[in-house]
Every structure is written in structure tokens, then in C-alpha cells.
Amino acid sequence: MSDLQLRPAPVVCGGREDVAGGPVRELLAPRRVPLGESTVVRRLLPSLGRRMVGAWCFVDHYGPDDVTDAPGMQVPPHPHIGLQTVSWLHAGEVLHRDSVGSLQTVRPKELGLMTAGRAIAHAEVSPRGHGPILHGAQLWVALPDAHRHTDPAFEHHTVLPRVTAGNGMEATVILGELDGAASPGTAYTPIFGADLALADGAEVRLPVEPDFEYAALTMSGVTEVDGVRVEPGSMLYLGCGRRELPLRADGDSGLVLLGGEPFEEKLVMWWNFVGRSGEEIAQAREDWMTGDRFGTVHGYDGDPLPAPALPATPLKPRGRTR
């Protein structure tokens, strides 16, 4: 998915200076951002005070939207470098096309994982005959320096491991590992992502890694996360230092739990690019506009997205300043 803002602000992120060694409870309110013709997303990361959670550097939540008489998601071809995208649906379908030749419809609780590496372009649209409801999350993962120039690729996993607790919780492992169940998705850093479905009244103490930082995004219903009520479309940043995470469902609820080792490298993120310097970002923008490096997304009926103008001030990596 693309950041379609016409004047995207540069975001400096990474570094461990402001990652607390102990647990915190920081509720992040979303920003509403238009995406394409008919979709409005709630942007949780990056936010003013929180740039990353482990290697997770971008979180959008959208829906549930009634798209019965609407085109649904319509995101034209656009470029990426230095990251992975994770498409995660609770309802609806998204048709993915990219410049390495992938053509795949992603459905609820299936993992669509695109590794941009050195350069890729893709488009995401609701297919013809799509269902009436669209609801999901779009997530980006920053690639570490050792792997950020890797070959671009797309993975589609229809079967993911599940962990069931007898007290009313079922977890689907998106990336990383939970209770010995490991996702088949390719990861380049110590990372974790899981979709948790909790039945009404469920009370769970989920095992977590004390060296990871975590955040919980409520997709539906209301979940009490470590004593904090998290409404749909909001995300609670939890910091590090826990060995278990208390969860309680107030009615049937669903959330996505994200985590990972704090990302040490400092990054520059602008538009759809994650790099290490302003010069790298500027070169990626020029390559996209001149038709170099990113390839062609075949089969999309329409023009690719033009890149916004670069900001007047230089782009510099400064870490996670608040």
C-alpha cells in the first residue's frame, strides 16, 4: 500500500535512545488519512511521539467499510525500497500486482508479504465482484542494512500457524513465533506479529519476550490490554520488559499484536521509501519518475502514481526524537 499524501513529511526513526527498558502504556490516537478513491485509513505509525515498534515502521487500519456500491481499495502502481509490506485482512479481498510479475488476490487471515529490497513497484485494488465489506491493516517492516538491497519478492501464505488457548483466545501467527508456532513468512530481524481473536469475557496472559517492544492494535470490539481499554482503530504502545501480557475481552474482540527487538539503525522514511540518507531517498524518487530501476506493473488499467515533490529541508537520519 502507498502513502498517498500529497505532501508527505519526512520521518526520522530507528535508534534505541528512547526505548524504555520497562513496560509503558502509551495510547496512540490515529490520524485519518485518505487513501485512493474511496478509502480512509487510520494511521497509527509513524506518529508524533512514536516512530517504530521493533522493525514495524508503518501501521494503517481501515474499515470496516461498506463497499457494496463503491470501488473499494484503488491504489495505483507506486514504488518501494528498503522495506517489507504486510497485507492483513479481516474482511474483503485485495488484488496485488507487482513489477516482479506477481498477481495474487489476498483474502482474510492470509499473509500477503512483499519484500521491496532494492526496488519494487506494486498496485493494490479491490477486485471486480468484491465483497460488501473491506476491513484490514497495512503494515510496513523496515529492512536492516544487511538485507535492504536484497532482490524484490512476493510471498502469499494461505495457511498460517494458529495457537489456541482454552480460555477463549485463538492466535494466528503473522510473522515470527508464538508458543513454538512459527510463521512461514520471511523475516530479516527478530520480529513478532499475531492476530488475536478473543471471545466475550476471555481473560488471557499471553507469553511475550522481555527484550521485545510491543504494541496492540484493536481491530474490532474492545480489548483491555494490560488494564487499558483499547477501542477499535487505536493502538497501545507497551514498551519492553514484560514476560506476559494480560488481555481481557469486553465482548468478542480482535486485535493485532506487533513486536520485535528495538531497531538499532537510524532511518529516513519519506513517501514510500525507507533509506539511510536524504541522497538515497532523492535518488529513489528520481529513478521512479524517470522509469528506472522499479520495473513495470503490468495489467493495471491506469497511470502510476507520480512522486510528490521533495521537502525543501534536507532529509537526515536523527533517530527517534520526540
Automatic annotation (TrEMBL):
Any one Gene Ontology MF annotation carried by this entry is: metal ion binding
Which stretches make up the Pirin C-terminal domain?
194-293
Q: Where is this region: Disordered?
A: 300-322
Q: Which cofactor does it need?
A: Fe cation
| Name of the protein this chain belongs to | Redox-sensitive bicupin YhaK (Pirin superfamily)
Report keywords, A-Z: Iron, Metal-binding
Which Pfam families does this one have?
Pirin (PF02678), Pirin_C (PF05726)
Xref: InterPro entries: Pirin, Pirin_C_dom, Pirin_N_dom, RmlC-like_jellyroll, RmlC_Cupin_sf
Residue sites binding Fe cation per the record? H78, H80, H122, E124
Ranges where the Pirin N-terminal domain occurs = 45-141
Task: Tell me the protein family, please.
Answer: Belongs to the pirin family.
Q: How is the cofactor bound?
A: Binds 1 Fe cation per subunit.
- Which Gene3D superfamilies does the record cross-reference, listed alphabetically? Jelly Rolls
Which domain of life, per UniProt?
A: Bacteria
